[in-house]
């Protein structure tokens, strides 16, 4: 399927989604908010890949929310009946939030390759990914504060769980640019690469390592890490026990050892597509 805001290629277990509006700094138009969850949910539910990589064409990863999003829907509604408008806006916002939550909820790990700016909603999107990598010229900016609003599509529930709270507060209160080197120092990104080309090459190599492993084991890791982040240690230990009691695969473990002894790539079963409804 073709999309208006990005290109999608799937090969060798890797789904590579590339933002494709460099002339507009890959800003998020109304179409983007519909297309991204559609694409990611399809990959996830139908097990079309083992890992998802997000990257962008052009100078910047994304300039964040496109101005057209503010000109339509509840945000552009008449001033009369403000409570009615507010209720409609809450549901509108929930849909925008879900766009990035699909990255967190995908069965596959999601890696973000970030060059140039990740501005405004670009921070929201980045924090919903499993891992973030940056080029040396990259920067992150909670731009919403600078235009008179509070970021609302994912930054605050996630950012302070990734970096020290003090830095999350400073980024948010000042709307200053956080450069790639500082982002790595405080744990927002895993690695910084010298150039855009080196960034994408490096991230794809990491994606290949993920795709080499058992999809069942990897999706279990993602599920457990997300669960442990949001629950107590006791609850997380209980959950992993229940998970492995039902999903630990002795055949997969056996295959990994046999493949290693035979000096070949292991042949792991793919996740099954998820059937919705009856």
Describe this structure in words.
The protein has 278 residues and is an alpha/beta fold. It folds into 2 domains: 6-211, Alpha-Beta Complex (2-enoyl-CoA Hydratase, Chain A, domain 1); 213-261, Lyase 2-enoyl-coa Hydratase, Chain  A, domain 2 (Orthogonal Bundle). 49% of the residues lie in helices and 14% in strands. It is built from 11 helices and 9 strands. The longest helix is centred in the middle third of the chain and has 24 residues, at 82-105. It is globular and about 65 Å long. The mean pLDDT is 94.
Helix content: 40-55%
* Distinct helical segment count: 11
Unreliable stretches (pLDDT < 50, length at least 5) are none
Instruction: Write down the CATH class of the largest domain.
Output: Alpha Beta
**Global outline:** globular
Structural class: alpha/beta
Largest sheet: 6 strands, mixed
Give the name of the CATH superfamily of the largest domain. Answer: 2-enoyl-CoA Hydratase, Chain A, domain 1
Compute the number of structural domains: 2
Average pLDDT, rounded to a whole number, is 94
Topology record:
Blueprint: E1 6-11, E2 14-19, H1 30-45, E3 51-56, H2 67-70, H3 82-105, E4 110-114, E5 117-119, H4 121-127, E6 131-135, E7 139-141, H5 155-162, H6 165-174, E8 178-179, H7 180-185, E9 191-193, H8 196-212, H9 215-230, H10 233-247, H11 250-261
Parallel strand pairs: 2-3, 3-4, 4-6, 5-7, 6-9
Antiparallel strand pairs: 1-2, 7-8
Helix pairs in contact: 1-3, 4-5, 5-6, 9-10
